[in-house]
């Protein structure tokens, strides 16, 4: 059976056993057209869920902070104008019409411990009008290490520190504008994590959170999200928050590339021809050219719905809206997962996927994309197709490079690395400076993505890399290597005693429901 999938910046026709099951994402649901988004936004804030209309929450003299998520989502980047630009432009018009003065409005990118967005990236997301009007004095990235801005709000009853930006607490209203692709994002996570510090994020981005429960990818049944919710509720005692969530459809690709995610029965004749020719035609192209082709892709995402109001009712509506776009039924758990990882990650925007992200994106994200229970059996095997280049962006991935060289050289155990290395990296002056001033992810960030793989690291019998020329990267990452997919599948059969193989065609994203259970 042919399985067209990614391996970094290549598309390959992998050969799977004939009995394999290839899962495809649902067909793209129609979204709100761009020219109708401003009116949809206005209807949402005029008829919010669980709180008063926006016009009753602000007046002349009100101080408003408009927060928005960074460019780690949605990805790939949207074609311009970005939906956040469209929504925030109408939001500003409404605030002005309600009497709010421009000088009383602050815009903040809620980066948490991600790398800061550069000026060109902010301009691409928000457009020239907003940049001219607000940047740089009233539009900036949040800085989790700016001690002059951080306010300590005590701790939750569970002892979790609650820290946030002064702008959040000093505002009469915080409006968080969010684009949601998966249930992980949005909800209580938006402000509580987006404006959190190392001290307030470490309690829930912790291997203890997923030792027994695998879920990080949705709020239900998640120890991590329970902790975030406790922090958020404490935070809300000190500020008023309106969230605006755009539940996104699955239009990752422009129309001419959508065949990549279609099952056979949904492909047209031309799509079948193009699809068959793609791996062969791309193979002779230099890596740099292939990377440029994929990076030029701009997504066609559109909101399925836009809701505004209090966090709990809004996020519940968001999950209801995106579930049909994500949900795929799996009749059973499988022995082995084969997944071709593209050179694409929320944490490698503007860079290539580094070796740490190869493992963490598949085990931390893809393995956990399910609703009720893992779609791989306990003791199963995950095979990752990716070249795993040992390269790290010299600015963005400074902490990742050190994590790979120093931490993974000593241990791959999440609990041991937490106890031995986490604090050192989080407090390291050079890594703090790189985060604050050189557009790097925070020193704690590579630990967080590795921690999300805690459950699958103990649940699976093996993880096998196929694509690197040798086992060098696999040894450092603490996983296995095979020179070919055939050999990897043979190893998987030996480990699991079965040959029930599942393969996922991602992007667009999907969440599996095993046995169709909700």
What features would you describe in this structure?
The protein is an alpha/beta fold and 518 residues long. It has two domains: 2-26 and 327-514, 2-enoyl-CoA Hydratase, Chain A, domain 1 (Alpha-Beta Complex); 53-170 and 185-248, LarA, N-terminal domain (Rossmann fold). Helix content is 37%, strand content 19%. It has helices spanning 37-46, 54-57, 83-97, 119-134, 166-170, 189-194, 198-201, 223-235, 269-282, 287-295, 311-326, 355-365, 398-410, 414-427, 429-437, 445-451, 454-459, 472-477, 485-496, and strands at residues 2-7, 10-15, 21-23, 64-68, 105-109, 139-141, 150-155, 161-165, 173-180, 241-248, 303-309, 327-330, 334-340, 376-385, 462-466, 480-482, 501-504, 511-514. The strands form five sheets. It has a six-stranded parallel beta sheet, with helices on both faces. Strands 6-5-4-9-10-11 form a six-stranded mixed beta sheet, with helices on both faces. Helix 12 (355-365) links the parallel strand 13 and strand 14. Helix 1 crosses helix 3 (83-97) and helix 12 crosses helix 16 (445-451). The mean pLDDT is 96.
């Amino acid at each position: 059976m042919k399985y067209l999938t990614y391996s970094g910046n290549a598309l390959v026709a992998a050969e799977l056993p004939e009995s394999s099951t290839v899962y495809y994402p649902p067909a793209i649901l129609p979204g709100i057209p761009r020219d109708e988004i401003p009116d949809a936004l206005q209807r949402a804030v005029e008829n919010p869920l669980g709180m008063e209309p926006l016009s009753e929450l602000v007046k002349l003299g009100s101080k408003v902070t408009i927060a928005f998520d960074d460019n780690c989502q949605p990805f790939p980047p949207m074609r311009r104008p970005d939906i956040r630009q469209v929504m925030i432009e109408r939001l500003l018009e409404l605030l002005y019409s309600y009497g709010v003065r421009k000088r009383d409005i602050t815009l903040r990118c809620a980066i948490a411990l991600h790398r800061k967005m550069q000026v060109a990236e902010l301009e691409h997301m928000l457009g020239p009008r907003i940049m001219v009007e607000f940047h740089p004095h009233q539009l900036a990235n949040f800085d989790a290490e700016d001690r002059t801005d951080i306010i300590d709000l005590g701790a939750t009853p569970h002892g979790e520190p609650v820290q946030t930006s002064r702008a959040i607490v000093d505002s009469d209203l915080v409006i968080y504008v969010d684009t949601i692709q998966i249930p992980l994002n949005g909800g209580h996570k938006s402000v509580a994590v987006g404006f959190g510090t190392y001290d307030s994020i470490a309690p829930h981005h912790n291997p203890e959170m997923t030792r027994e429960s695998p879920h990080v990818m949705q709020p239900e049944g998640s120890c991590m999200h329970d902790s975030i919710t406790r922090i958020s509720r404490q935070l809300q005692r000190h500020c008023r928050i309106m969230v605006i969530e755009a539940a996104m459809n699955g239009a990752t690709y422009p129309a001419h590339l959508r065949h990549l995610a279609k099952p056979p029965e949904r492909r047209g004749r031309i799509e079948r021809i193009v699809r068959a020719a793609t791996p062969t035609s791309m193979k002779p192209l230099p890596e740099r050219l292939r990377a440029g082709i994929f990076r030029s892709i701009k997504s066609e995402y559109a909101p399925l719905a836009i809701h505004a109001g209090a966090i709990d009712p809004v996020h519940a509506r968001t999950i209801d809206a995106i579930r049909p776009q994500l949900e795929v039924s799996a009749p059973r758990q499988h022995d082995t997962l084969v997944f071709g990882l593209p050179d694409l990650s929320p944490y490698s925007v503007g860079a290539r996927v580094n070796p740490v992200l190869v493992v963490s994106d598949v085990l931390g994200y893809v393995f956990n994309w399910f609703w009720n229970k893992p779609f791989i059996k306990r003791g199963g095997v995950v095979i990752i197709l990716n070249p795993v280049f040992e390269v790290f962006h010299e600015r963005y991935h400074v902490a990742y490079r050190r994590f790979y060289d120093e931490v993974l050289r000593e241990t791959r155990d999440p609990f041991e690395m937490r106890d031995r290395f986490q604090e050192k990296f989080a407090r390291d002056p050079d890594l703090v400076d790189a985060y604050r001033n050189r557009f790097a992810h925070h020193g704690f960030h590579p630990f967080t993505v590795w921690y999300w793989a805690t459950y699958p690291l103990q649940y699976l019998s093996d993880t096998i890399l196929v694509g690197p020329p040798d086992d060098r990267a696999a040894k450092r990452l603490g996983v296995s290597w095979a020179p070919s997919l055939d050999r990897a599948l043979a190893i998987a059969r030996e480990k699991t005693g079965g040959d029930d193989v599942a393969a996922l065609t991602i992007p667009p994203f999907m969440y599996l429901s095993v046995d169709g259970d909700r």
